[in-house]
Write a structure and sequence with these properties.
Number of strands: 7
Strand content: 35-45%
Strand order of the largest sheet: 4-3-2-1-6-7-5
Radius of gyration: 14 Å
CATH class: Alpha Beta
CATH superfamily: Mago nashi
Order of helices and strands: EEEEHEEEH
Distance between the termini: 25 Å
Length: 110
């Protein structure tokens, strides 16, 4: 988990951005808040357990209209790990959504 610079999750025009550095920061809708190193580490630990078995792409070609999403993990050395989908998701995508919502709720509620 060392060396991660930022994480960007986009779904249907909404962005969740987590910047990691001297001060870890979350940006989502009208929220822009510093988050503790402990919360950041817990989030990343859980995230990597969830995405460990993900493929790079999940595309349902039979759906013309549908939801699009992407997750980018950007490392300090410039490397990038990317996952994306259109009308298709990994089996444990709901766990990923719950993890994000938990972090957002914790930031909103202090």
């Amino acid at each position: 988990m060392k060396g991660i610079k930022s994480l960007i999750y986009e779904i249907d025009g909404l962005n969740l951005v987590i910047n990691i550095g001297d001060k870890n920061q979350i940006k989502y809708k009208d929220i822009s808040s510093v988050i503790s190193e402990e919360k950041t580490f817990e989030y990343l630990r859980n995230l990597f357990c969830i995405i460990d078995s993900w493929n790079k792409e999940y595309i349902n070609t039979k759906m013309i209209d549908g939801s699009s999403w992407s997750l980018s993990i950007i490392y300090s050395n410039g490397n990038k790990k990317e996952y994306s989908g259109k009308s298709s998701y990994p089996n444990n995508f709901e766990a990923f959504e719950r993890l994000n919502q938990k972090l957002i709720d914790e930031v909103q509620n202090g």
